[in-house]
Design brief:
- The chain has nine helices and nine strands.
- The protein is an alpha/beta fold.
- It has a five-stranded parallel sheet with strand order 7-6-5-8-9, with helices on both faces. A four-stranded parallel sheet has the order 1-2-3-4, with helices on both faces.
- Helix 2 links the parallel strand 2 and strand 3.
- The longest helix has 24 residues.
- The chain is globular, with a radius of gyration of 20 Å.
Length: about 290
């Protein structure tokens, strides 16, 4: 319910085909100049019940097939899925992923160089996210100081003592972004069904963000918010790779005694270089 409340109308803002397709067979006669794959964890077999070759663009007619920062999460394909990938990659003109882990796993199945790009959310910078999205939220002008939590793992209850210790140290209330109505004794404010606009505004205004989510971490970094990344038990690779790339691995599982405000002067310079590199790769892949 809360996901539908938050995201049910999002697709109305984008130009979509008038016809909806429900099978690969229905899409076999489609004609496009370019087909692009790139959704979050699109090649994670754990999430998609095995790798689906539709997500490998094995349909329709196109002069180019491109992967833009496709994601595998922390899962590795089985032997059958590796053959699917090898066959599909032969039809791609350019391939990029968003994890070093994915590039290492997939490179043996193509002679094309697999580029590691930043997560697509980084293609927009802090100002663009706030201007385009954050300012539409009722939370953009919040003056109260708070710690924001956003957890997606199944062990949320295990985090309570850690969150409470940090909140006590900083003497700040805890606000939680939730898409299910679980109860936390440590939370003083539930935000049920936050929209994308709310998500941006709440992170940008938080004194500290606590999250086990990759995108919770990514948006915290992009919006230059102080944060601590909690290590996700079953899908840690993406967050760890991002922190390592930006030289801030110490933000992983910080506790109340080691916490410090993050100096973004160096981090943001690194991020801007990586952003420009990713933007250039996408434009070159489309235009070449």
């Amino acid at each position: 319910y809360y996901y539908k409340k938050a995201f049910g109308e999002v697709t109305n803002n984008y130009p979509l085909t008038e016809k909806r397709y429900f099978s690969k067979d229905e899409m076999m006669t489609l004609n496009y100049d370019i087909l692009i794959a790139g959704s979050d964890q699109i090649w994670n077999p754990t999430i998609t019940n095995g790798i689906d070759d539709v997500f490998l663009l094995q349909f329709g007619n196109a002069s180019k097939r491109i992967s833009v920062a496709s994601s595998m999460g922390s899962s590795e394909p089985n032997d059958y899925e590796k053959e699917l990938i090898k066959t599909a990659f032969a039809s791609f003109s350019a391939i990029s992923v968003r994890e070093e882990f994915a590039a290492k796993i997939l490179q043996p199945y193509t002679d094309k160089h697999i580029k590691v790009l930043m997560d697509p959310t980084f293609l927009l910078d802090k100002t663009e996210w706030i201007e385009r999205m954050g300012k539409k939220s009722k939370y953009i002008d919040v003056k109260e100081k708070y710690i924001l939590t956003y957890f997606v793992g199944h062990n949320k209850q295990e985090y309570q003592n850690r969150v409470k210790a940090i909140a006590n140290k900083l003497k700040l209330p805890v606000w939680t972004i939730q898409y299910s109505n679980y109860n936390w004794s440590v939370s003083s404010k539930k935000i049920l069904g936050a929209t994308i606009e709310d998500f941006i505004a709440l992170i940008s205004n938080a004194e500290l963000v606590l999250t086990d989510s990759f995108h919770g971490t990514a948006f915290s970094i992009n919006l230059e918010a102080n944060f601590i990344a909690f290590k996700h038990k079953t899908n840690p690779v993406r967050v760890m790779g991002l922190l390592d790339k930006l030289g801030i691995m110490e933000r992983l599982d910080m506790n109340e005694d080691t916490y410090s405000v993050l100096d973004y002067s160096v981090v943001s310079d690194k991020l801007e270089r990586l952003r420009e590199e990713s933007q250039k790769w996408v434009l070159d892949a489309v235009n070449s």
